[in-house]
Design goal:
- There is one protein chain.
- By secondary structure, the chain is an alpha+beta fold.
- It contains 2 helices and 4 strands.
- A 4-stranded antiparallel sheet has the order 2-1-3-4, with helices on one face.
């Protein structure tokens, strides 16, 4: 298990919430994605200061931004091609 610190912040960097979880290394990315879905309008960062393998993982867009972009691309495809994928 690795202690992973999560930081939820606005895009301007203002921290909204911080919390820590003990996770298996194989579950870190899944847990980060779940947190992004819950905090859909905020940026979520996962960080560990583990001496063996320190890391910090985050995406530059919020989950909501990604979903809006995806929907825009699907709408554009439908408009241009008139077909479903």
């Amino acid at each position: 298990m690795i202690k992973v610190d999560f930081t939820v912040s606005r895009l301007d960097g203002t921290v909204v919430k911080t919390y820590s979880l003990d996770l298996e290394p194989s579950n870190i990315l899944d847990t980060l994605e779940e947190a992004r879905q819950v905090w859909d309008e905020y940026q979520v960062r996962a960080k560990s200061d583990n001496p063996i393998a320190p890391f910090e993982v985050f995406k530059t867009k919020t989950y909501k931004q990604e979903m809006m972009e995806r929907q825009y691309l699907l709408d554009m495809h439908d408009e241009c091609c008139g077909e479903d994928w």
